[in-house]
Amino acid sequence: MVLTPTNAQNTAAQGKDTAILQMVEVEQLPEFPGGDNALHKFLFDNLRYPERAKGEGMQGSVAVGFIVAKDGSITEVEVRKSSGPLF
Questions:
Q1: pTM of the full structure
Q2: Tens digits of per-residue pLDDT, 25-52?
Q3: For residues 26 and 19, what is the distance between their CA atoms, to the nearest angstrom?
Q4: Element (H, E) at 39
Q5: Which site in 2, 12, 30, 43 is 20 to 30 Å from 37, CA atoms measured?
Q6: In angstroms, rounded to a whole number, what is the distance separating the alpha carbons of residues 43 and 37?
Q7: Any idea what DSSP says for residue 20?
Q8: Is 52 in contact with 38 (CB distance < 8 Å)?
Q9: What backbone torsions phi and psi does residue 70 show, to the nearest 5 degrees?
Q10: What is the enclosing helix (H) or strand (E) of 10?
């Protein structure tokens, strides 16, 4: 089951950024092309640890948020939480 907005147009028209969600059944949930192993490989190949942080022995994590569009493209990427400005 997946949560989907039921009145996104109504709330947008009213200037609200909230929507009522409903549960709907889907036959197949979305996934990264190639599955979890392909996602892990993509992340390993594309994430870069900051050189300065590496040189100073710093460790940390970053939480990001993003929107996946219907065509699979990623938009509105933002850092939600970070261990520091180098990350």
A1: 0.51
A2: 777 777 888 989 998 999 899 988 889 9
A3: 20
A4: helix 35-46
A5: 2
A6: 10
A7: -
A8: no
A9: -55, -30
A10: helix 8-13
